[in-house]
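I'm stuck. Please check this protein.
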Amino acid sequence: MRLSRIAQPPGIRSTKEGGYWENAKSKDGRIYLQDDFRAIRANVSLTDKGWAMFLAELNKAMTRAENGRWNFDTTRDKGIVCQTRRHEEVLEARLKTTVDADGAHWLVRLYFTEPECEEGLLLSLCMGWKVPGQAGLDQQDRHIDQAYERFCQWL
């Protein structure tokens, strides 16, 4: 029997108990989320105002998770948080659609985990963006794999 590496049930902290955020870091101490933000900023043409609004929305959403106020979605299409099928240790927070200056729609996802070994921890792993629909699923799989690799390194 395999022991779970995340708190049970999945999403318990972000949706009920609350917790505190920490960012996963590379071996040389770089915060992964900062790298992800730079990549998003470079590839999604948001205005400065749009970027500020995105960061404010993200901060508000993360505060709701700290207070256990996200909702868990077992159907994977209605709530904010779901457990990924690809790697059960990785949870996905679906943030609102971001529209860039060119009118393109992007879906932004925060991949995180709630490690069983650290009481109350909400560990951010990866921030990803994708296009809606089938075309974005390959992008999403790469982000989930990257988040899982970061979690394994954190362990």
In short: DSSP finds four helices and five strands in the chain. The first helix runs from residue 12 to 17. The CA atoms of residues 26 and 122 lie 17 Å apart. The chain has a mean pLDDT of 89.
